[in-house]
Amino acid sequence: MNSFNDILAAPTIFRDRNVLSPHYLPETLPHREKEIERIMKAVSPALKGEKTRNLLIYGKTGTGKTCSVKYVMERLAEAGSEAKVKIAFINCRIYNSRYRILQKVVQDFLPQHDKAGCGLAFLYERILDWIEEDGKCFLFVLDEMDMVKDLDDLTYTLTRSNDEIKKGGVGLVGISNKLSFKDRLDPRTRSSLFETEMVFSPYTSYQLKEILKHRVSKGFAEGSVDEAAINLAAAIAAQDNGDARYALKLLQKAGELADEQKAKVLLDTHVEDARKNVDEDVSYEAISTLPRHQQIVLCAIASLQLEGSRYSRLGDNGDSGDNGLLSGEVYDKYLQAARRFRTEGRSARWYREYLQDLEMLGLITMVESGRGQRGHTRFIKLAYSPQKIMKLIETNILGEGTGAVA
Question: What is the DSSP string of 40-102?
């Protein structure tokens, strides 16, 4: 096989691989009907020219938050074409400040005002003028809202803008993977932002099975996926926080393995074989999108794990064992690494929160010190290769080259 024609002509059990992508928006979203209805009710006032209620949506990765919001926004845009409804869907991992978000809106809707060096006030005033000229209802949909660096300032700007608009209004829909991020906000921001809150629960094994069956019918050739494979993929994903993205990725990788083996049917054995690769892919993808300080903590853990702990185990029996790294020494290493990456280290309180986030993502494991320990601490271990993690963070993410954190 040495040409694209040969590759494209090779037999495959896939019908449309795109259907298995997390970015694919299906015509229906099984088991999210109630959530979709609540979102529709929150934004429906826009169709009457009224301000919508600010809405904040929480839920772990793969629980259908973004898909559900996009589903509703597509229908709102269609229904509101004559009602002057406009929507900006913004990925806050990329546009992560008040200035960049307003600049993105100007680029998309008012390109004539997109000029180098424009100040924040200029962008803000142009957007308000544009809304007010015909009484638009404008919705800011902020995906991964917790990534905005100056979220207090952004929220204040957007919510207070309605006091300056005589015709039309501004609404806010925020999406976040973290239930705890609102605790960092100013109380006034919280009161103005969280008019309506929703939590998307993880999918159950049964719900995941229904979702996978729906995607399999469109993504794979008829009869090419054994039901046992669907059941296993759903069960594995249900154990891993009910993540539909993970389930779809597992099935896609299993399909690729089946193609490599020239198998006509995707079996549960293919799903089992795919699991290790997908676990690693998902973890490294998660690392690539972590906030900077969490990456530095992870890099510090990897460096210490390669070097070996500076302290012996604190057990009374003197056994050095493989208990993991002490939380305190990891914090010291994090502060060193932060300086190396020209970043100001955060307090121990923030550090503990970073550890909790990394544990929740399955990137580290933590065990509380038991009987016989001097004082109370935690032992920390990486769940994946420290060499690979350091290379990924240093080279691809932080752009610092290779080598241990000194």
Answer: HHHHGGGGGT-PPPPEEEEE-TTSSHHHHHHHHHHHHHHHTTTTTEEEEEEETTTS-SHHHHH
